[in-house]
Amino acid sequence: MGEADCPYYAKAELLADYLQKNLPDFRIHKITQHPDIWEEWLKDLCKKNRWSHNKSPIIWRELLDRGGKGLLLGGYNEFLEHAQLYYGVTSSMTTELMKRVAQENLGTHIEKELEKESLKGLVNPLQVWITSASSLACYHLIPILTSGEVFGPQMEISINLFDNKHTEEKLISHKQEAEDLASPCLQSVSICTQAEEAFHGAHVIIILDDHVDKEINSLEDCIRSRAPLCQLYGSLIEKNAHNFAKIIVGGKTFVNLKTALLMKYAPTFAHNIIAVALGVEGQAKAALARKLKITPSCIKDVIIWGNISGNNYVDLRKAKVYRYESAIWGPPHYSRPVLSLLFDREWVNREFVVSLKTLTATGRQFGGMLAAHSIATTLKYWCHGSPPGEIVSLGVLSEGQFGIPKGIVFSMPVKFENGTWVVLTDLKNTEISQQVMTRMANDLIQEQLVALGELANFQPYQSGNLLDMKFYRAAIKIVLKYVLKQNHYLNKSNPYFITFQVNY
To answer: Model-level pTM?
Structure first.
């Protein structure tokens, strides 16, 4: 090793190359340093190995099969003596050639350093933005994101914590703890309290349950309070985010509504905005596991339909149990239908339904761990695909699948593959009764209308009741907007018809 422009290093290098070429077990490793940093680098090396050497080059032997530190040979003269003594080889390089090679070495060294710097610039970390980052969910989410399980162990990430100015102290605390993790996947952590700087260069945006500063006196006020924030986030996403950013809405407060509003205010990214339903799915699996006295992870393919944070339907018709201890036993891939093991149908139809309805009531918060885990798992599936053959519940924009009204964000069964999701429309025996579908769709449409100021009061759905025709006219408007948006490439000379049926 030596200074890049050192003539004696050039002569030693030529001799070492000759030995390596002609001796079968002789291997060399060459390192050059720029003249500006050579002395400091040499001093640190000698201090580390307890050597005494003060000129270029420095040469040592390493016995790879024995371990331990290297054996210092010295400089060029000592290396030449070693080569003559052991191998009977010497160097005949002239002084003029030494100087010319030394200058070439310096030029090559500078070129390599510039190339390294340019390559570093190409390897940009994944920019992950988290809103409401002072929340407990964010605190639990950070260690999962930095573990390498979500984006892959080779993917470096940069986490940006975004919240309002009043939470700055907590954001700083989150930042310091994240840095203390010393994760090899985490390149940097930053905090942001200025809205205009939010989502700059974002590749992934995680929308957590937002803070509401003012007092909310009614459900309608709570719904309407979401619109301005989603409008702000939408405009910032359009302005600052990366072109192919993934946007994931988690938590337990009007998740479907916030997803729909973000699609409205960030239309460029509408196809890449999803709502997390795995939290509700996890709660359902845990309730079933307690009843069956098994581990929740043994239950698969529970489907959550409808409003993730409100009126939904937990579908057990496809649910399976693996590794269930009973008289019937099979290999790890063997499963049995959940409904065939639940003999207490009274529990399924009453206690199970009531407990989940309480857990998923509008505005009820998830625990921090559940919210974080469900978001991280959904992101992992989005990046790497969901387990083969497994059904995942996800809130996405309806295109009329399963008879769901178009233009609303609805939780339905999907699978993740190739960096996107596919709605599982080929599932058999998944028909939902008209009454259940109307109940779920009614609430989602009303939430959207109230948030946009097109409906004054939210009216919970009741079977057999005739709702205000103003609601149906507004609902028709949503469907019309969706259909027109989907068909804006159609030629005006090609007419098409839209049928909207209202069942009382």
So the answer is: 0.69
